[in-house]
Amino acid sequence: MGGDLSPSLKALDARWGRPGAVRFTERYGGPVALLQAGGASIVIALQGAQVLSYVPANMSEVLWLSPVAKFGTGKAVRGGVPVCWPWFGPHPGDTTQPAHGFVRSAPWTVTGSAASQNRARLVLAFDASTNLQTGWPHRALAELEITLSDALTISLSTENRGSDDLEITQALHTYLAVGDIGGVTAEGFEGRPYLDQLAPGPMRNDAEPVRVTGEIDRIYQECEGPVFVTDEKSARRIRIAKTGSRSTVLWNPWVEKSARLGDMGKEGYRRMLCVEAANAGNDKVTLTPGERHRLTTELSVTVSKAKSKRND
Ligand code: TA6
Fold it and tell me: Helices marked H in the chain — which ranges?
């Protein structure tokens, strides 16, 4: 195996590899880390520190990855869990800046790994206090800690390394894989106020669980608890828990936006739903010098009771 690794992958394996739990290789045309624990596995692209795949033990893929995802240097990959930092959505003041910040398509540095019985962990960092080429006039360190156990836990920490207060927005932009969007219900949003990105205006509020029947792009506020995606066709329920976040983004591009995006694949929108642990909308994070903030999302899956066999 080691024979086919590039020198940098060999060095990563030597420094951070953990037998049977953490190894480095190439996938999708770029360097990735493969983590395994208790029969579960994940793939993490080092570019963007982006989890691209999560397969729990004895289950199928939990994350959606576009079948036409374009992997390339400096190109955000459509799917998995892109890291939106240090701003969510369009840059608050400069339209020349990329949407969702500059780290999701930048190289991150592996800074830690660990493995124990049924658990594997990788830590990556993006030091924006020295990456002056971003043009971002602040000094901060972003760290992503990815832990695989009987759930997938991803934590994005920000440390303000500047001498002024730092305000950020951010999201772990999770693309969940679903059997078919027509059989999906999202629960835990009932009664939560949300900003409708498709119809800017006052906060809205729905009392019912969410069914997706067209483009949806909502930033739920005052939304701290776990939410659930029930997927009839896949006969499973995904729990999305979080900490350090009072906002959750729900997004499906549907037909027209998918066509504009160009990298969703044929009817890709039917097989995905984004449920994003975020600090977005009015839920901004302000850090004093030296202060740290941690945003965490935890994904876990249960198999729905086998659909009762109808007697017809
Ligand atoms: O999280 C929802 C959203 O902000 C949508 O408005 C849409 O733009 C989506 O993110 C994807 O953004 P991207 O820059 O990855 O195409």
Answer: 7-16, 254-261
